[in-house]
Specification:
The complex is a heterodimer of chains A (77) and B (369). With 77 residues, chain A is α+β, with helices and mostly antiparallel strands. Chain A is built from two helices and five strands, in the order βαβαβββ. In chain A, 32% of the residues are buried. In chain B, the strands form two sheets. An eight-stranded mixed sheet of chain B has the order 3-2-1-4-5-6-7-8, with helices on both faces. In chain B, strands 9-13-12-10-11 form a five-stranded parallel sheet. Classes of the chains: A alpha+beta (77), B alpha/beta (369). At the A-B interface, strand 4 of A face strand 5, strand 6, strand 7 and strand 8 of B.
Chain lengths: 77, 369
């Protein structure tokens, strides 16, 4: 059971990584908590979360291997 | 399509069997508004005009500057200091005199947005700040207009079609994806973060492509999906979006609520804003507002036209508990110290209070009377 995490935009700047593998993450709330502990600046960042390329808004149980992406809003034009 | 020279103009795209004469007629009948004639807007405008979109609107209030030219491909050094919207209109006119171009050389605001947008079917958002993006989204929801969204950050771009009902009659909007505006400084703009001109060129061109697909009905447009492109590694990432039931409550219900919604306020971490003399005059009799003179004691004659308290800037931090109203208007002689005071209060109260500083101070206001 692992999560393949992809980070976009300024979230990649905060973590210094565009991709990460995390193990033993039971649900998306735990994932966010873990990330916020690893990277405190992430706690204040705003982003959308996609589980296997679909946006999710509520805590979701993770079973098997999953791809999760975190996408912040961009404003530039 | 009877004029052979006009047919010549579009011959290469009419010969695409998916588009054909019918598609060309659809383009001719289409009305598309491009907001922001900048990095995204310039390429989008070029290709929409080239394709023969019958009515194109351009909204921009800004002037061309030298640092724009690496990405805003409609302009040259001869345009520096001139209106982007007017210059863009002139260039498009030269590229395609057969289409109607309507120039709005003004800043889009909640006062004019609904009037401007209602003359068009598809709206392209190529603006460079969150306040405009939320404002445009909400206007599109209220008017039921399709929104083609493009945005960039450093080497990445986002593209989506919002507020366009899918076959299942679901229309996702920008607030479904990002209900909360980021705080000031959380997301850098192009000026702060930097950008290579090619990236908005690619995303702006893709915005034009999605628009042409929507109009002509060809292909599979990015309805209710968000595409992210990374120009460094050429990765595309696409995801499906969800409509959220609670989003409806966040969007102003009607014209009146829309015009009363403060988008700068919504998109700012701080809560301090400058107040013009006219706005100040309007609020002077409002009993719910606390007016605070931050000049030093005995410095100048006290205004007698309205109720106020005196808290000199030098002791403001100690006297914050004396400020109890939800809306606070600070003033001083010239507007400088009150702006500083507004920043202090804004840091203290966050978004829990509305804090204003009178622009040009009490001296400016008394002069304007």
């Amino acid at each position: 059971m692992q999560v393949h995490l992809t980070l976009f935009g300024q979230l990649a700047d905060i973590t210094g990584k565009t991709e990460m593998i995390l193990h033993d993450v039971p649900d998306t709330e735990t994932l966010i908590k873990t990330l916020n502990e690893m990277y405190p600046s992430l706690a204040n960042a705003k982003y959308a979360m996609a589980l296997n390329k679909k946006v999710i808004k509520e805590n979701t149980i993770l079973s098997g291997d999953n791809n999760i992406a975190l996408l912040p809003p961009f404003s530039g034009g | 399509m009877s004029n052979p020279s006009k047919n010549d103009r579009y011959q290469r795209q009419i010969s695409l069997k998916e588009l054909g004469e019918i598609g060309q007629q659809k383009l001719k009948d289409a009305k598309v508004l491009v907001i922001g004639a900048g990095g995204l807007g310039c390429p989008a405008l070029l290709y929409l005009a080239g394709a023969g979109v019958g009515r194109i609107g351009i909204v921009d209030f800004d002037l061309v500057s030298l640092s724009n030219l690496h990405r805003q491909v409609l302009f040259t050094v001869h345009d520096i200091g001139l209106s982007k919207a007017l210059r863009a209109g002139d260039v498009l006119e030269q590229i395609n005199p057969d289409i109607e171009i309507i120039v709005f050389n003004e800043k889009l605001s909640n006062a004019n947005a609904l009037d401007i947008l209602k003359g068009f079917d598809i709206i392209l958002d190529g603006t460079d700040n969150f306040a405009s993006r939320y404002l445009i989204n909400d206007a599109c929801v209220i008017l039921k207009k399709t929104l083609v969204y493009g945005a960039i950050s450093r080497f990445e771009g986002q593209l989506a079609i919002f507020n366009h009902p899918s076959e299942a009659k679901i229309a996702v909007n920008y607030r479904d994806l990002f209900p909360q505006a980021p705080a000031d400084g959380e997301v850098l703009n192009c000026e702060e973060a930097g950008v290579i001109g090619v990236l908005p060129g690619i995303i702006g061109t893709m915005m034009a492509n999605e628009t042409i697909k929507l109009i002509t009905g060809i292909g599979n447009a990015l309805i209710n999906r968000l595409l992210t492109y990374n120009s460094l590694n050429n990765h595309f990432f696409e995801m499906e979006l969800l409509a959220m039931p609670e989003t409806g409550k966040m969007i102003p219900k009607d014209t009146r609520a829309f015009q009363a919604f403060n988008y700068d306020w919504f998109c700012s971490a701080h809560s301090a804003f400058e107040l013009s003399q006219e706005e100040f005059e309007e609020k002077i009799m409002d009993k719910n507002i606390q007016f605070v003179d931050v000049r030093e004691a005995g410095e100048a004659a006290q205004p007698e036209d309205f109720n106020h308290i005196n808290i000199p800037l030098s002791s403001l931090k100690d006297q914050i508990p004396d400020i109890k109203a939800e809306t606070i208007i600070l003033f001083c002689q010239s507007g400088k110290r009150s702006a500083g005071a507004a920043e202090i209060l804004s840091k203290h109260f966050g978004k829990s209070r509305k804090i204003y500083s009178l622009k040009d101070g009490i001296a400016g206001w008394q002069k304007s009377k």
